[in-house]
Amino acid sequence: MIPAVPVPYYIALSAILFTIGALGVLIRRNALIIYMSVELMLNSANVAFVAFGRAQEIVSGTPVFSGQIFVFFVIAVAAAEVAVGLALIVAIFKTKQSIDVDTLSSLKG
Amino acid sequence: MSVELVIFLVLALVAIATALGMLFSRNAVYSALFLVLNFATVAVFYLLLGAPFIAMAQITVYAGAIMVLFLFVIMLLGAERLAPSQALPWQRPLAILLALVLVVEAGYLLLVRGVPAGQIVPPAESANALKAVQDLGETLFRQYLLPFEVTSIVLLVAMIGAIVLTKQEKGEG
After folding, report:
1. What are φ and ψ of residue B55, in 5° steps?
2. Which of A12, A45, A69, B120 has the smallest CB count inside 10 Å?
3. Which chain B residues contact residue A33 at CB under 8 A?
4. CA distances, B93 to each of A26, B27, B98, B99, B107 (Å)
5. Could you report the per-residue pLDDT of A49-94, keeping only the tens digit for each?
6. Angstrom distance (rounded) from CA B1 to CA A96
7. B106:A4 CB<8 A
8. CA dihedral (B85, B86, B90, B93) positive or negative
9. Which H helix or E strand runs over A94?
10. Helix or strand (DSSP H, E) at A51
């Protein structure tokens, strides 16, 4: 038997990690932890990209780089997003003295 | 049961456990450290999938740069823990219910509608690893040159944005 891991296993892992990330965004109130959960969701999508790319590579027999290159771009954009997001959190902390997202209700009618 | 499958299952267990640890830690520093471990296991998944360049980028950019930035901000703000405040009572059960619905839907689509049910074989010889990275670089700088340059502009804008957001206005303090 060929040593192998079925593709759906990777996709299932990706789905579980994505759900944990989404749950973190929904139930935590610390803005930093919400940010970490978003990073987790980006990562789970990356796993799916690389797994599909590898599966395509095995099926076609030639190297396929689209999945890996997309992941490269996702990592770059995530880095940019974290830089801006953390600057926003620091700015919010300077005015509110808290990063509890429940306190950010200035726009409430 | 092959060795690769055992490695995959153990790593998947570690990845899910660290993700849950990140989610349920009371202290934000512990959350960040759990997430570093999670990113490291994901990097090993990339190695299993024959993507050594992405694995190293994951370690340096995510586990290195991004998480250090997170820890830096957590400690700078002293925001390891939040003061307890009353949450909406129905929010947590509703969120967990919706997450379960999401997992069940994803599982249904996986098992019934079907992802292409191929097998992922790890790359055979390690002598090919460097060649694969070289080919990846050539594809990146030939076929995907324009997106690459756009990414550099995105990073520049993010850098300027971060500076502008944290800059003290004149006369403000």
Report:
1. -60, -45
2. A45
3. 22-23, 28, 31
4. 10, 22, 9, 10, 21
5. 999 888 888 888 788 888 899 999 999 999 999 999 999 998 888 8
6. 55
7. no
8. positive
9. helix A66-96
10. helix A31-60
